[in-house]
Amino acid sequence: MENLDVIVLKAISDWRAKGQAGILVTVVRSWGSSPRPVGSIMALCEDGAVIGSVSGGCIEDDLIFRHRSTEDTSWHTRTGTERLVYGVSADEAHRFGLPCGGTIELLVEYNPCAEQLARLILYLKNGKLVRRTVTLETGGVALEVTDCPTSLMLDDTVLVAIFGPGYRMLLIGAGQLAACLSTMALFSGFTVTVCDPRDEYTCSWAIEGAIVTSEMPDDAVIAFKPDRRSCIVALSHDPKLDDMALLEALHSDAFYVGAIGSRRNQNTRRDRMIEYLDQTEETMRKLRGPVGIYIGSKTPPEIAVSIMAEIIAVKNNVVLHQDFNVRIAKDNLGVAV
User: Fold this and answer.
1) What is the pTM for the complete model shown?
2) How far is Cα 232 from Cα 250, in angstroms, rounded to an integer?
3) Locate the XdhC- CoxI domain: which residues (predicted)?
4) Where are the CATH 3.40.50.720 domain residues in the chain?
5) Domain 168-333 belongs to what topology?
């Protein structure tokens, strides 16, 4: 499954390329609780088709009602932008399904340029981070490739938003756990690559949408070119494969590097990589293992849920309580391995 922003941008780009009117809506501010974070986007076509979301659904319904009216089609040729605020009063917050005290401000872009949208999508497909600046009065857009992610910015004249490529996952090992984890990652919007040089594992791989490679793991990590939107998880249970991948992954920009295995195996791996593979205490601190959060998981699907939950938490800068740490939880419970 593609990154949600890309899905929304593709939809409105296609509508506009076909000559259909459309609006692109961005959450630009929120006060109190709000259903969707700042930067969330949705698109609406003149025929009422909608993709993406800016709330739990009621605001989308209002936007459809506003722009699908057969009596007023003047917006079909309109350009520029409009700012809308929902939830100022308690009655309006209740009407639009906002939590108590929740208020959101939206920026509506009327009929954005199809060529600019296509160019933005191409940048994202090529792994670029893009700063998109919208001039509020005219709706004009400027795109600039950047290396510096920043928060959305809105003032009286412009909206500046950063769009980045989708998150990526590289899995080492094509076993049952990798199949479960890749399915969850794809559903969560990650692009998934699975590396396993063992034919007996890759020949039966059946997860549609995942890229499969049979090159050696260290070469796969180098070719993957990990960045700050990448995660790498070693799942093969074969030290010859997992350690090769980790040697490269631990020195990359990947936001998450993890390895399957018991506490005993993790200790052995740590000692082995420091003694024989020139790693240090500092480099090994980046390695997460035993991988995942502690939920008492036993089966491959449950373990995959555990791993995916930790990856998403790290991606979202959530600090997990130590009770969720597998090592600490098992130590406290007196689990042997």
Assistant:
1) 0.78
2) 9
3) 15-66
4) 168-333
5) Rossmann fold (3.40.50)
